[in-house]
Amino acid sequence: MTDAALPLAKAPARPSRERLVAVALAAPAVLILIFLFALPLAKLLAASLTGAEGLTFVEYGKLLGTSFYLGVIWNSVRLALYTTGIALLIGYPAAFALARARGPVRSFLLACLFLPLAASVIVKAFAWTILLRSDGLVNTLLMAVGITAEPIRMIFTETALIVGSVNIFLPFMILPVYTVVAQLDPRLSDAAATLGASPVEAFVRVVVPLTIPGVVAGVALVFSLAVSAYVVPTLLIGERYPTLSTTIAKAYLLARQPAFGAAAGVVLLVIAVATVAVSARLAKLGGAK
Q1: Are 174 and 113 in contact, with CB atoms under 8 Å apart?
Q2: How confident is the model at residue 1 (pLDDT cuts 50, 70, 90)?
Q3: Exposure of 240 by Cβ count < 10 A (0-12 exposed, 13-18 middle, 19+ buried)?
Q4: How crowded is residue 282: how many other Cβ atoms within 10 Å of its Cβ?
Q5: What is the set of domains in the chain, with CATH numbers?
Q6: What does the alpha-carbon distance between residue 129 and residue 16 come to, in Å, rounded to a whole number?
Q7: Which residues cross the membrane (predicted)?
């Protein structure tokens, strides 16, 4: 009986070996995350809290205690809210159209969705400046059909900024929603109809709740990208609409105030991380239902 029990005593060694293998495989990725993300972020935080007299919160007081910079923060958040809301209104039905398309039509729509991602943000923003300027295509068409007698000022306005931002970040809303919608069983609406639900009721009470994870992911992506956008506001509206990103660039490149730029970067990072955390929580609650 004693000899038969010996092999059983060695059984717990396998989980330890598997754990060591898992740690060894994860170590390179962990080191990359530490050196490329954790350490730079720690350095950014330290720079925002370091002054001539050591630890200080002066830069945060300047950023969060003045009406101008509070307005700058609100400009970034407002741009992200407008962009996310409009992108959701356009991207949600577009995702359904893409999921319901078949054959060459779906291939064409996917190409239209992915090809713009191959171009840089700078190229797309410059394209909008060409379209919206006084002698651009939009004004030319408006005057050609008789809607306006003279060019309308479009470039360097908040409307142009929002239009360009929505156009650039729209694919990041469509793709997560499309991924979820494509996995839905099309017979769900028929099943709801057999239980007496109207088409609208079946869509609202059956289909929409199942797409919440994709919506949450799309909202998190678009909001995080829009709130931290730098190229789009710089090219489409310039100094008329200061944002956190443009403020950070000025602090580092022009004003030579790295501590203030670091503080603004930390605030922007907190906003982005909070958005992702809230979105993850909402996705978890939606999945639990």
Answers
A1: yes
A2: very low
A3: exposed
A4: 16
A5: 67-288 (1.10.3720.10)
A6: 60
A7: 20-42, 79-99, 108-131, 161-181, 259-283
Residue of 259, 279, 137, 156 lying closest to 217 (CA atoms): 279
Q: What is the pLDDT of residue 256?
A: 87
> Is 209 in contact with 184 (CB distance < 8 Å)?
no
Identify residue 146 by its one-letter amino acid code. G
Strand partners, 245: none
| pTM, rounded to two decimals | 0.84
